[in-house]
Amino acid sequence: MQDLDFQTFRMGEKSWGIQWKCKPSREFLQFLLAVKKQLAIVYTAEIIHTYSEILLKNIESDETPLILEARFREIIKTTIPLGFQEHKVHHVPVCYDTVFGEDILLLADTKKCTIKEIVEIHTAPLYTVYFMGFLPGFPYLEGLDERLYIERKPIPKQKVIKGSVAIGGKQTGIYPQDSPGGWYTIGHSPISFFDVTKERFSPFIAGDFIKFYAIDSQEHTVIQEMIKAETFELKSEIYAK
Amino acid sequence: MQNSITIQHAGFYTTIQDKGRSGFAHLGVPESGTMDKKALQLANALINNLDDTAVIEYTLVGPTIHFNCDRHFVITGGITDANLDTQKLKNNKVYLARKGQLLKLSRVIEGCRGYLSVAGGILSKSVLDSRSMYVPITQDDILKNGMTLPIGTSTYGSTKGARIKIDTITEATAYFTKQELSVFKGPEYHLLESIQQEHFKEATYTISKLWNRMAVQLEEIIIHTIPSIQTGAVLPGTVQLTPAGRIIILMRDCQTTGGYPRIFQLSEKAINLLAQKKQGDSVSFLLTD
Questions:
Q1: Which of A113, B170, B261, B278 could pair with B188 as two cysteines, CB 3.0-4.6 Å apart?
Q2: The complex's ipTM?
Q3: Phi, psi (5° rounding) for residue B287?
């Protein structure tokens, strides 16, 4: 796909943004990644994307705003789709036990369904890692079933623990570290999702897939022990259509 | 043994900072770095350090530091009540501390954040190309009593003409006394009603008790009907308007994405100025776009 319905905007002295109006989708993400790649060839900048925006941080360019905008337009117009990209599917274990998922009962009550049904709905999709933000290694995931949409809590909780799997608005994600947070905690993963001592700080990159699978509290403990002993490896394979 | 300094008393909120991290925003890693970049630049220039050399940033009440070797140092940023043993010190002037001497940085009298740069710089562990403290990137979030910090090799005085002198405090610190933050329009500025846009031109705002390295929240509330946005990119200096009408100005340790409308973007100069403001101080917005 190619979407030419966009606007450019300025963020202070050194940064420029490009904003589209469309809804996030896997197809659009592929387009964003292709545009990013193209922009990186032309400009020296830190280029990041979110749902429907690209930001060029600290862009090194002497061009006037008008010329910059025209060149962005030209680059986006001539962007070639990336074609088939090799992306991984990561299988992430989650314990949905109420000990960890302290809000899962509340969610079940609100949605008038059972915990079992919530687990089924939450583990069914193949989520897309859209981008990372909010906290180091926090993945914004696309693909939450709309039956689990829920308004964020009016008052954020002071401490959501590291590894918490949560739902907020139309989104689901994993907290890679302890943090205040306004999302509903429905489970916990024993995996470490951001570690600067590892060769790859985060197991995920934008465009990868995540599949959650349910584990009980015993399995959770076992995996925790294996992680301590460095014998656990996150299961992942190359995505095949 | 390597040359070092020891933190005897850490002060109110004291950290190691440099220019911060770039190139890791796609992983959600904040920029960090000194709140006041102008003071960092001056501190390192005065002592002939490279401009990215790590310094100590302190807030309102500074640390007491024991020198374990002879070393030149300089204090910039907030005007600080400082003593080297019994000698009273001035900002923006290079001094030589002898091994065993005690540098006491007490109250910040004017401004809010002070910077100590030692010749050769602080050589704490660099993580993701920066020594700026931010958990969980670095192990510690603040300096604690008793910590000993390795320092690099001094190049002070080694280059001809490297010494810069600043005779008047006003020259280097005049910017703190201002209250006008020069801003550009943010991507959601146009969602404000014209009456609100006018209001921002006129009004003066007060810094609330929520002010830290991540963000500065203002006291005043803006009644509005702008909805939250789809999560977008934010930067240090982004001014957000929450659904409850709170104005939040993001600072150096801010997250990389956010879902509140971004009404303004502070100029680099304005971020440095705001870094020198504290609870109760007044600020206003001057739209330069």
A1: B261
A2: 0.90
A3: -75, 120
User: Same domain for B16 and B134?
Assistant: yes
Is the Cβ pair B128, A196 closer than 8 Å?
yes
B10 lies in which domain range? Answer: 4-175
Judge if B121 and B226 occupy the same domain.
no
**What is the distance, to the nearest Å, from the Cα of residue B135 to the centroid of all Cα atoms in its chain?**
17
pTM over 0.90: yes
Q: Return averaged pLDDT per consecutive 10 residues of chain A, 241 residues in all.
A: 86 94 90 94 95 95 89 91 84 94 92 95 97 94 95 84 93 92 93 91 94 97 94 91 68
Task: Specify whether B90 is located in the same domain as B184.
Answer: no
CB pairs under 8 A between A and B: 103
Take residue A29 and report the two structure tokens written for it: 């993400």
Q: Give the distance from residue B167's alpha carbon to the nearest chain A alpha carbon, in angstroms.
A: 31
* Chain B residues with CB-CB distance to A134 below 8 A: 28, 231, 255-258
Statement to judge: residues B34 and B141 lie in one domain: yes
Residue after which a domain boundary falls, among B148, B175, B202? B175
Residue B184: give its domain's CATH number.
2.40.100.10
Q: For chain B, how many structural domains are there in total? A: 2
> In this complex, do B27 and A55 lie within 8 Å of one another by their Cβ atoms?
no
